[in-house]
Amino acid sequence: MAEVNTADDQIRGTAQGAAPVPLSVLDLVTVGSGRTATQALRTSVDIARLAERRGYHRHWVAEHHSMPGVASSSPAVILAHLAAHTERLRLGSGGVMLPNHAPLVIAEQFGTLEALAPGRIDLGLGRAPGTDGATAAALRRSERLAEGADDFPQQLAELTRFLDDDFPDGHPYARIHAVPGPIQATSPGGVQSPARPPIWLLGSSGFSARLAGTLGLPFAFAHHFSARHTIPALDLYRDSFRPSEVLDAPYALIGVAALASDDAREARRQVLTGALSMLRLRTGRPGLIPTPEEAEAYAFSALEREFTDGWLANVIHGTPDEVRTGLDDLRKRTGADELMITSNAHGAEARVRSYGLIADAYGMPDPA
User: Fold this and answer.
1) What is the 3-state secondary structure of 78-115?
2) Residues 130, 63: contact at Cβ < 8 Å?
3) How far apart are alpha carbons 48 and 345 in whole angstroms?
4) pLDDT for position 131
5) What is the mean pLDDT of the chain?
6) Which DSSP helix (H) or strand (E) runs through 184?
7) Which of 9, 91, 111, 367 has the fewest C-beta atoms lying within 10 Å of its C-beta?
């Protein structure tokens, strides 16, 4: 059984090889044209195994709904599967969208994950729905979507109390316990570890940055789709930070879209598939990730070309050395404590290969 570390140890990683900071993986479990969700989930296992072998620090899965090209609607289920195929790699949600779920349910799910993989689970939380408004309403059984986002601090406080099992006497939930969880350690004869997954706050603007800083929690920013807000949000997080039992100093990671290939032109072909997929999503036509051939043959209008060019400007791609340079430059500009790389492309082989090439570029360990 893995040794359970302190909260700070579970949050802060160690850079491997020549990487300036720890490198991690953000996995959307993308489904390409002509492929199945089963194949996409197998690719996630392949990526997790490679990440563990090569020294990536963590592998997160992001909650999305009603998107044919993204098979990560159930992060807890996927994480349990990944835990069964890895031994040391940290696994977590990047994130679970808290307003979509009852806090008790999340506490139970992640308590179960912690029991399956002690000391390896992260609980990243977001306040966006991870989908369109109609789907969010179906998930929450409510049309009052803004109310869920506005209640995020209260939902977070409730979830934290369920995870710590410390509702005060007299509280309506004082006799309700998230199981598996700390109650098992304090029950007669209990031997359950009282440890719980560290909470991260996720964001693409300033709200969660400020909240994470005020609470002394680690913060993850979605640079891969909100690049112009990255530095202001990180500055706000650091300025707002107050030391806590979790962290004595700020710790921020950023999500980064990056793909490396042996040939720069092939890297461009692969990332164009992700750009076209995002264009279709943003214009109300979500679908499977197109093939490189389909993306190359697509007749972009002038407005669509402007969108995809802007999107690709934020995707670090090219040869391994070019990607390394891009990642190094981004880290210097933002001061991020960790880079979490997502590679949205059609082919499983291209994605797996990219993580290996990036590890090679930094001289990260390769036990094989």
Assistant:
1) HHHHHHHCCCCCEEEEEEEEHHHCCHHHHHHHHHHHHH
2) yes
3) 17
4) 61
5) 92
6) helix 183-186
7) 367
Closest C-alpha among 359, 366, 365 to residue 260: 359
Q: What is the 3-state secondary structure (H, E, C) of 300-367?
A: CCHHHHHHHHHHHCCCEEECHHHHHHHHHHHHHHHCCCEEEEECCCCCHHHHHHHHHHHHHHCCCCCC
**Rounded Cα–Cα distance for residues 138 and 72 (Å):** 17
User: Which residue has 């359950």 as its token pair?
Assistant: 192
CA angle 54, 59, 60 (to 5 degrees): 165
Q: Which residue has the tokens 């020549």?
A: 18
Q: How long is the chain?
A: 368
67 CB contacts (<8 Å, ≥6 apart)? Answer: 131, 281, 286
- Indicate the burial class of 301 (C-beta count within 10 angstroms; 0-12, 13-18, 19 or more): exposed
pLDDT digits (tens, 9 = 90+) for 299-326: 999 999 999 999 999 999 999 999 999 9
Distance CA(119)–CA(86), nearest Å, equals 13
- Of 66, 144, 69, 131, the closest CA to residue 97 belongs to 131
192: closest CA among 111, 81, 284, 124?
111
pLDDT in tens, 194-247: 678 999 999 998 999 999 999 999 999 999 988 999 999 999 999 999 999 999
CA–CA distance, 36 with 47 (Å, rounded to integer): 17
Express each pLDDT in 108-126 by its tens digit: 999 999 999 999 999 999 9
